[in-house]
């Protein structure tokens, strides 16, 4: 199931969506302007249909103050940068047969057919890192297979998620300071946004990162299905959000779609994101908030602790909580967009 959305600028969205869907703009970060470009994106979002984000009516403004280096990958143990052995460039096609070596820890991180394994425990023979169900569930091959074949689309029905291409349009403004730079699609799942980012041509490097090897496998399969996919700017990486394999202050933007509530510790994860973002770098994320009518559910605050203890999934009860989380992790300029339970947030690393 996939829908074709017409291009709508963020500010005209409320009328386009009708009265049942309300979008609120809490504040609007005004980026500095340098040069301009227009983009058109087409991405395969499910096995059966294409979705399209049409050229923007408003030109996208590019700020050139971005990191151009491709050497942002770091050892997840010591955070020192890595030496790439084998292929000379990072890309979807070059992972197989390549090795990333840490000269400090003397540890190697190997690429396979689909991705680089950059988890701390990569290469361990007997130890398996225990993760909560909200992380483990996405490692099942069936869940990964179903993710873009109905699972993700269901977020629009119960959660007010506008859908990948509309979400991409909504985040364009937030991402302006990172255009032409690198972007990490954190907890990318099967890569629906990573593919959009790569195909947009707006970024010099896209890292699709997830803990689930099967989600990354699916991402790889979707890419393989498209003959003209620009593979040279995309790299697939397996990593834990709480231990990001990037050099500190090296990343221009981190996007995390529908993932904050799945992370074992949102605060550790956002702190890691804050560490890797360069000054002025942007964090954009979507999740859902149970407020409005849900605020009347008795003992919801206490129940969510039990839910978190059992499932590992964190339920957010207000935007203030998300703002607090970002502020506590050293991010500033919090902005949010709402549509029912759906929320898109953005915050930046101070300059
Ligand atoms: C609901 S999916 C979101 C996928 C995609 N970003 C989207 O917008 O649809 C949540 C993703 O978070 C990933 N995830 C869960 N725990 C993680 C962790 N500890 N580190 C990295 N990724 C994690 C899962 O593997 C899953 O792919």
TrEMBL record:
GO terms for molecular function: S-adenosylmethionine-dependent methyltransferase activity. Signal peptide: none annotated. One of its GO terms (biological process) is methylation. It is found in: Plastid, Chloroplast, Plastoglobule. Pfam families: Methyltransf_11. This is Methyltransferase type 11 domain-containing protein. The lineage of its organism: Eukaryota, Viridiplantae, Streptophyta, Embryophyta, Tracheophyta. Belongs to the methyltransferase superfamily. GO terms for cellular component: plastoglobule.
């Amino acid at each position: 199931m996939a829908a074709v959305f017409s291009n709508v600028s963020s500010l005209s969205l409320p009328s386009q969506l009708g009265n049942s869907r309300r979008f609120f703009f809490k504040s609007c970060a005004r980026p500095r302007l340098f040069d301009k470009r227009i983009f058109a994106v087409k991405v395969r979002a499910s096995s059966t249909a294409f979705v399209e984000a049409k050229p923007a009516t408003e030109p996208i403004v590019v700020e050139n103050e971005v990191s151009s280096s491709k050497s942002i990958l770091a050892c997840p143990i010591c955070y020192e940068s890595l030496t790439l052995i084998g292929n000379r460039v990072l890309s979807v096609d070059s992972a197989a047969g390549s090795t990333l070596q840490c000269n400090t820890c003397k540890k190697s991180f190997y690429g396979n057919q689909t991705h680089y394994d950059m988890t701390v425990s990569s290469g361990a023979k007997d130890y398996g890192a225990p993760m909560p169900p909200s992380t483990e569930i996405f490692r099942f091959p069936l869940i990964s297979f179903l993710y873009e074949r109905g699972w993700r689309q269901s977020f629009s029905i119960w959660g007010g998620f506008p859908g990948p291409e509309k979400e991409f349009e909504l985040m364009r403004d937030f991402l302006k300071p990172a255009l032409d730079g690198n972007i990490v699609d954190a907890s990318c799942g099967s890569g629906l946004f990573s593919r959009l980012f790569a195909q947009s041509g707006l970024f010099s490097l896209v890292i699709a990162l997830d803990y689930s090897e099967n989600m990354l496998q699916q991402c790889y399969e979707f890419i393989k299905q498209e003959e003209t996919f620009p593979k040279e700017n995309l790299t697939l990486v397996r990593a834990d959000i709480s231990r990001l394999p990037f050099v500190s202050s090296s990343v221009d933007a981190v996007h995390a779609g529908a993932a904050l509530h799945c992370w074992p510790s949102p605060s550790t994860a956002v702190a890691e994101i804050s560490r890797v973002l360069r000054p002025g770098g942007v964090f954009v994320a979507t999740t859902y908030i149970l407020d409005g009518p849900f605020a009347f559910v008795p003992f919801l605050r206490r129940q969510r602790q039990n839910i978190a203890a059992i499932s590992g999934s964190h339920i957010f009860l207000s935007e203030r909580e998300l703002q607090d989380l970002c502020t506590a992790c050293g991010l500033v300029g919090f902005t949010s967009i709402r549509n029912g339970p759906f929320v898109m947030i953005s915050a930046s690393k101070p300059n």
